[in-house]
Amino acid sequence: MTMFESYSLDSRTLAGPLEARLAAIRQAGFGKVMLDARDVVSHPGGVAGAVTALRASGLRPAGLQTLHDFEGLSGPLHQYKVEVAKGMLQTCAQLGAPRLLVSASTLPHASTDLARLAADLHKLAMLAVPLGLQVAYKALSWGQSVRGFLDAWDVVSDANCSNLGLGLDSFHMFANGDSLDDLIELEPERIFQVQLSDFMGDIPAPEIPGQTTRSLRVFPGQGAHSEQLADLVLRLARLGYTGDYSLDVSNDDYAQLPAEHVAAQARQSAGWLNDDVLHRAAPLPHWTRSQANTR
Questions:
Q1: Residue (of 211, 251, 226) closest to 174 by Cα position
Q2: Cα(1)–Cα(286) distance, rounded to whole angstroms?
Q3: CA 276 from centre of chain
Q4: Residue 103 forms beta bridges with which residues?
Q5: Closest CA to 7 of 283, 231, 235, 246
Q6: pTM
């Protein structure tokens, strides 16, 4: 067992070939990796090559991201997005990833009718059923109509599919001004993924999306929002959430650093969350567990 079994690091956080990134993540003590679809399809060996690299690394996939702007479209645009979704679901299944991450639509011509959005997500979840996959839907602070996690929860609840759940992203929660008190409204078993990142200063207003929001993200505990992040994960623990936390961080500095250096910083962040915030005990070494079981 690795040190951080319930934490994953986003593949797009690190620079270099996929094999080097996976090796750095494993060496840092993580058991899982959140895979970015572009990293997978851009592998020199294609999806099959990425699958081989993943299996050789010993890491398990936490999920595949991200399907963008899926819901709320009509006619040929809707059918186009359905075909995109089918392709991403197939890739997800090939990787052995348990879920596909979907972000709320930002398209200005997408429907704002939540019932319509729920119907589209119901269709997506049904497409995932034969493949044994989950779909995690998250709000975007600059989304067209789903900006807060309660908005996303309403859509997920209305869609009423057991394999459709909620994705939480701390950056978008804080940028949108979501109240953490509202977490009590959620069903913990329907929270499929939690993505965490810190920020180097004040988080930009939701109506100012763009590259700045990504270039200034840092690992939890390294930025200006450590207290908020600690409050978030503690509230989720009290709610009964027992799933994974994904460190969803990428910035211009990390893109210029060796993967091992960045992964080591991610390890420190996971250690802060695990030990200082959640106060989880480190897993026993395999030989220690074996001895304990014989007593």
A1: 226
A2: 7
A3: 22
A4: 138
A5: 246
A6: 0.91
